[in-house]
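Figure S7 source data.
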Amino acid sequence: MSNRIAFLGCGSMNEAILGGLLKAGTDPGDVVATVRRAERASELAGRYQGITAIAGEEEPDNNRQAAKGSAVVILGVKPVGITDLAREISPALSPDTVVVSVAAAVSIAQLEAALPAGQPVIRTMPNTPAKLGRGVVSVSPGTHCTPEQLQLVKDILRGAGTVVEVPEEQVDALSAISGSGPAYAFYLAEAMANAGEELGLDRELSLLLARETVAGAGLMLAEPGANPAALRKAVTSPNGTTERAIATFDQQGIPAIIAAGAKAAADRAAEITKQLG
Ligand SMILES: NC(=O)C1=CN([C@@H]2O[C@H](COP(=O)(O)OP(=O)(O)OC[C@H]3O[C@@H](n4cnc5c(N)ncnc54)[C@H](O)[C@@H]3O)[C@@H](O)[C@H]2O)C=CC1
Ligand SMILES: O=C(O)[C@@H]1CCC=N1
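Tokens for the predicted NAI complex:
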């Protein structure tokens, strides 16, 4: 078996994983990516020198070509298209190719039903900081995935960030925190930038302050053993300005609002799973 990794459907998420893996030292010669449009294939091939990118509008069997002979294929299309893609590549898969899905809400059972009997499958839930090697990626092995195959995929995904193994029942909850979570952090930065403007700062300055502050705080959180509550307390002088801000957030119910948002994300995943039935 080769070392080849195929990224089928290389949009935001699969490109982020691909970027993280290359940054961590994966040989670009071992990477093949498929997309729909030729323009996007050229963009990827230009950005990541040495990979192969094949556009469906030029080579309609691009996904099968890429899957054939690959050790691992990573399905990165939208949930609604993923079982069709699995069926499409089935004739090109060797029995020991590990099929990895990054799709939210698509169950291992749904994936396995669309693939040849006995095909090893791993359901994952990554996030976009994978691009910098700072993502979180969950793995949940399917029925036919051996411990060695799971280890191989964990070792590969480590290039994208922290790998955690979770039972499939926990993926929707995990997705509501780490899968969607980067968007929550960016949303906070947007809201802070707007707040600064309302306080009279220039738009550009306010955006710079918000970006650098959220990024700097993120780096502190990334230090080993970091505790968000302790870090927050270190900024909060007794009877000072931060204390007043946090008290206002608490009074206005921000923690409950965040919990409600996360629950809505997890509920939506369950709803999509049912719809895809
Ligand atoms: N964007 C994110 O932060 C995260 C996304 N995901 C999952 O990743 C998957 C993809 O999401 P995004 O990357 O955001 O979407 P996207 O739309 O950016 O990427 C999908 C890509 O697949 C291509 N594509 C569609 N059908 C194709 C086919 N038959 N053959 C080849 N290429 C095809 C599209 O042209 C597009 O470039 C979804 O299933 C989503 O649930 C999971 C975690 C986080
Ligand atoms: O919004 C979504 O459905 C995907 C899954 C987690 C992040 N993005």
